[in-house]
Amino acid sequence: MQHRQTTNTRRNVNDYLSRKAKEISPYAAGAQPKAGGVIKLNTNENPYPPSPEAMRAMADFNAAALRLYPRPDGGVFKTAAANVHNLPESYVFCGNGSDEVLGFAFDAFFDGNIMFPDITYSFYPVWADLFGISYNLLPLGDDFTIPVDRLKADGIVLANPNAPTGIALTLSEVEQVLKQNENAVVIVDEAYAAFGAQSAAPLVNDYPNLLVVNTLSKSHSLAGLRAGYALGQPHLIGGLERIKDSFNSYPVDSVAQAVAAAALNDTAYTNETAARIVATRERTTAALAKLGFNVLPSKTNFVFATRKKIPAADLQAYLETQNIYVRRWDKPRISEYLRISIGTDAQMDALIDAIKSFISSPV
């Protein structure tokens, strides 16, 4: 049978894309090596398994119920988040990971002239560009701290603790930002707060312009589940729901709702694993300092470190030959820093041994 040949004058595959899709610079996630035996310290995953209660909820889930749509508001996940923070359920919004929640928040609350630090989570400018929101970058201080007195705009976005520096603001500093931007929404992204920072969640009742965003990826060892939530007064939660229901009414699947709720309710396990990570972080910081590294003060499950006379790119490349992955950015001021996720004590010992080997090897 002879097939009729069709002609297509659109020879460039990019011709099929919208202008936005062609021009946007998407977020670049950390490398996901496929080989086995890798020590993966580049994406800030929790080295310990999820709560036994979360795993039990996964095992006990009735798969036959998947024929039904999940609760659009997050169901038991929403209830658990409200209970953990001692807030009404009307103060909670649930989404498919905190990245989705943050994306909805950008679309719900900002028209333009927003501000965030020049060194922070690199998804923020991507969302701003995607939604056509103008933004200003606030340069960090020489010590990589945020000059909070200069955070004034029509919208503020703060990662607290900041990423990739790991440095945290105090609760009084967050409150200062809220007061000097009382007519603008202030988003506080607390992806890493469980590892030593002061959460702004207790301020939600007092500040109608505060939205606190959290994730179960780091603190609850559920990066693969994709579960995040926001805390705010009902008018802000309503704004998020308007955007959600204009995009996807069911962002959190039924399994995720059950497992996330079980993980949130098991606060003892979460606190225990967070404490183990903090202890390993302090141990690793001391070991790196002994090797001549400058390590920024971290309140996260990673450290940000540099060493004079050792190019960060060279050290990163060497570590990968040893099947150890860390993260680095080609950006001014931080290109000589490595962000190193905190793994188990054994994994961090392997990292330190590899760094010692690199330092002692002949040039």
Give the helices and strands, then pairings.
Layout: H1 19-23, E1 39-40, H2 52-60, H3 76-84, E2 92-95, H4 97-109, E3 114-117, H5 123-130, E4 135-138, E5 156-159, H6 171-179, E6 186-189, E7 210-215, E8 228-231, H7 234-244, H8 254-265, H9 267-290, E9 294-295, E10 302-306, H10 312-321, E11 324-325, E12 338-341, H11 345-360
Parallel strand pairs: 1-11, 3-4, 5-6, 6-7
Antiparallel strand pairs: 2-8, 7-8, 9-10, 10-12
Give a brief description.
With 363 residues, this protein is α/β, with parallel strands linked by helices. It is 35% helix and 12% strand. The protein is globular.
Shape: globular
| Counted beta strands | 12
Order of helices and strands: HEHHEHEHEEHEEEHHHEEHEEH
Q: Biggest sheet, strands in spatial order? A: 2-8-7-6-5
Low-confidence stretches: none
Helix content: 25-40%
- The CATH class designation of the largest domain is Alpha Beta
Question: Could you tell me how far the N terminus lies from the C terminus, measured between alpha carbons in angstroms?
Answer: 66 Å
What would your notes on this structure say?
Helix 3 runs parallel beside helix 8. The protein is an alpha/beta fold and 363 residues long. The radius of gyration is 22 Å and the shape is globular. Strands 2-8-7-6-5 form a five-stranded mixed beta sheet, sandwiched between helices. Strands 9-10-12 form a three-stranded antiparallel beta sheet, with helices on one face. Strands 1-11 form a two-stranded parallel sheet. It folds into two domains: 35-48 and 271-360, Aspartate Aminotransferase, domain 1; 52-265, Type I PLP-dependent aspartate aminotransferase-like (Major domain) (Aspartate Aminotransferase, domain 2, 3-Layer(aba) Sandwich). It has helices at residues 19-23, 52-60, 76-84, 97-109, 123-130, 171-179, 234-244, 254-265, 267-290, 312-321, 345-360; strands spanning 39-40, 92-95, 114-117, 135-138, 156-159, 186-189, 210-215, 228-231, 294-295, 302-306, 324-325, 338-341. Helices cover 35% and strands 12% of the residues. Helix 6 (171-179) links the parallel strand 5 and strand 6. The protein has eleven helices and twelve strands.
